[in-house]
Amino acid sequence: MSKQINVALIGNPNTGKTSVFNALTGLYQKVGNYPGITVEKKEGICKLPRGVKAHIIDLPGTYSLNASSLDENVVIELLLNKKGKDFPDIAIVVSDVENLKRNLLLFTQIKDLEIPTILVINMADRMSRKGISLDIPFLEAELKTKIAVVSTRKNEGIEQIKELIANYKDQSTTPCLNASEIDSAYFERLQQVFPNQLLYKLWLVITQDANFGKTDRNEFDAVADFKTKSKTDLKRLQQKETIKRYQFINNTLKKGQTIDPSQATDLRAKLDRILTHKVWGYVIFFFILLLIFQAIYDWSSIPMDFIDSSFASLGEWVKNSLPAGVFTNLLAEGIIPGLGGVVIFIPQIAFLFLFISILEESGYMSRVVFLMDRIMRRFGLSGKSVVPLISGTACAIPAIMATRNIESWKERLITILVTPFTTCAARLPVYLIIISLVIPEGTFLGLGYQALTLMLLYLLGFATAICAAYVLDRVMKLKSKTFFVVEMPNYKMPLFKNVALTVLEKTKSFVFGAGKIILAISIILWFLASYGPGEHFNEAESIMTEKYASVNLSQEDLDHKIDSYKLEHSYIGIAGHAIEPVISPLGYDWKIGIAIVSSFAAREVFVGTLATIYSVGSDQEETIKNRMAGEVNPILGGPLFNFASGISLLLFYAFAMQCMSTLAIVKRETNSWKWPALQLFFMTGLAYVTALIAFQVLK
Amino acid sequence: MQTTLAHLKRGETAVITDVSSTQIPLKLLEMGCLPGNQVELVQIAPFKDPIYLNINGSHLAIRKETASHILIEKLSHE
């Protein structure tokens, strides 16, 4: 009873595979990565009758076993590696009732691997509306499989899937056609050389670079006549194989499926006519974007204010109610403000992923890709770059991972390189606090100056991304095929459960991912700011008392003088002073310098750092904004955060590559340090130069 | 009339006759773009590219560049 049944969930994109996964596993799921690569691995536990459990893996969507991307490779590698711990006891191929023909292609390939397989026909609720009827017993006989007709929307058929999984040992492993007929002589010889191997597996190894089980691969390559056909010949054979499979599928469906076209409603055509219209298409897209930004800025400000004030009072409460000491100080001045800086993002991130997942689920995203391809191509991008550029407004990391379905390497690389220019959620707290300090509150044409500034910064991000793409397209001498295939799925009402789970899971991974870094940095910063070397730091109290002995200072003012003297001679103060010459031409003091350096890990750390630096040693519960407004420029005098230095900081953060995680992802996705290094150098260089010019002109 | 898919006009249908060019990605064939299948041009994007096709019930969009390698036989409009 201890053994779990390993189940692999396989299917084309847009078949509702994830809905089936969610229906089977509910909340018993987790998302991680496949070892060594950034492909998302979704797995979950499904409780079967009689106390048996199934371990279900939701594999990336793919149209066939001929992989053309990293995500699709995962599918092959898992299915070919018999010794792997995730090797399935049973494969479930999920298909969508309206595209059964295309979905069955993948099904026949899986069957050739001789893994016990069942077929799930999803979206059964659409059958009558589309005039489709199926002869299930006939299809089961022809396809040599058990079929479950399922509607995740109405929660029908899920129990049947569970029953079939529980009886996985009874499922057929016989292939449904003999694909080797396309070149019998070749395949016979291949089988003679490797008598113990499955023919279809050999064929996949020959045609793909799948890296399943290292030992197997080496064993194959060692045999000299393993690869006897040229690349072109292989490609022709793959074409023949596809045609052969479709012939079988067509013959099967001719008898097993009837479609009465008079029953079909024409909603798709009507919606397409509007949504891909040459004027209305763009207008609608624009308004959808506007709605998203409205939600992110306006609607999320209410929960954000609440989180902000809750953390401020939590810090205060800890300080007052716990016994005084190092630990209390660390908690109240380091950890709590640092964590508050992460938690405050939750509403925005959640809203963004809410919209993105609704757009994807409904099928609208493909229309945007279709609409934008020609325009984007002019800048060396693909229509598919739109999705990463929009997701980039949440975070560049998922955005860069979303470039994987761009077929052309050059278009994909350019998209990866320019995506970090889009204004990600992490820049927002930096923008918000600086805007509120240096931009006046007046209005222009009914719009607040502050809101306008924010909008300009967003436009600046997009414009820079597009211009950079244009330049890169001209400069890079990369030859690559520019094909482009997008499925235009049917419009669907998004399933609440799917959207909710996506939002929950993405938000969680952002908070924990960024949270760890920020927490670590705020603790380090607190220590660096609370301790220092030598007598200047340790004797601060007596030095200052002596210095101001003649002046009649109140105890409060004297304490303040002592605290700032201490900070200046703490470890962090010393480091800050060391870099001051580099940053003072931009209008920053050493405290901002520290914030910039520490926010190299992640931009949002900037506010957290200033919060930590300013709150060390201070007793009042004061907002960070008020503390910043009180700072004085050490060289020029006057407020430190004025219009010139504020604009300079805004520009710096708009352009600079201040995110280690993004660099790490770019390295992984491009498989080279060259591209992230280039990004770091050019983006931060651009940031420094523009910030310098802005400050020098405006001061 | 023998021509390529890039020459199909909106609303027209044709039968695919040849996809053997190596410029055509395998993925396209796997999505149903195969000889003998009927193809309808559903929509052309603004700026005349890409094109939105319905191949035997499979809806997809490709660029004109790729379409120009797919040979078709136009069906007379009923």
Automatic annotation (TrEMBL), chain A:
UniProt keyword Transport, yes or no: yes
Nucleotide-binding found in the keyword field: yes
Main localization (coarse): membrane
Subcellular location: Cell inner membrane; Cell membrane
Bilayer topology term: Multi-pass membrane protein
Cellular component terms (Gene Ontology): plasma membrane
Binding sites annotated in the UniProt record for Mg(2+) 1: 22
Residues engaged in binding Mg(2+) 2: 23, 25-26
Membrane-crossing residue ranges in chain numbering: 279-297, 339-359, 413-439, 451-472, 510-529, 643-666, 678-698
Amino-acid positions noted as binding GTP in the UniProt annotation, renumbered to this chain: 11-18, 36-40, 58-61, 122-125
FeoB-type G domain span: 4-171
CDD domains: FeoB
PROSITE patterns assigned to the protein according to its UniProt record, in alphabetical order: G_FEOB
Gene Ontology MF, one: metal ion binding
UniProt keyword terms in alphabetical order: Cell membrane, GTP-binding, Ion transport, Iron, Iron transport, Magnesium, Membrane, Metal-binding, Nucleotide-binding, Transmembrane, Transmembrane helix, Transport
Family membership noted in the UniProt record: Belongs to the TRAFAC class TrmE-Era-EngA-EngB-Septin-like GTPase superfamily. FeoB GTPase (TC 9.A.8) family.
PANTHER family hit by this protein: FE(2+) TRANSPORTER FEOB, FERROUS IRON TRANSPORT PROTEIN B
Role summary: Probable transporter of a GTP-driven Fe(2+) uptake system.
Name used for this protein in its record: Ferrous iron transport protein B
Source organism of this protein record: Formosa algae
From TrEMBL, chain B:
Alphabetical UniProt keywords: Iron
GO molecular function, one term: transition metal ion binding
Source taxon at top rank: Bacteria
InterPro entries for the chain: Fe-transptr_FeoA-like, FeoA, FeoA_core_dom, Transcriptional_repressor_C
UniProt domain Ferrous iron transporter FeoA-like: residue ranges: 3-74
Pfam families the UniProt entry points to: FeoA
PANTHER family with a match to the protein in the record: FE(2+) TRANSPORT PROTEIN A
Name the record gives this protein: Ferrous iron transport protein A
Organism annotation: Formosa algae
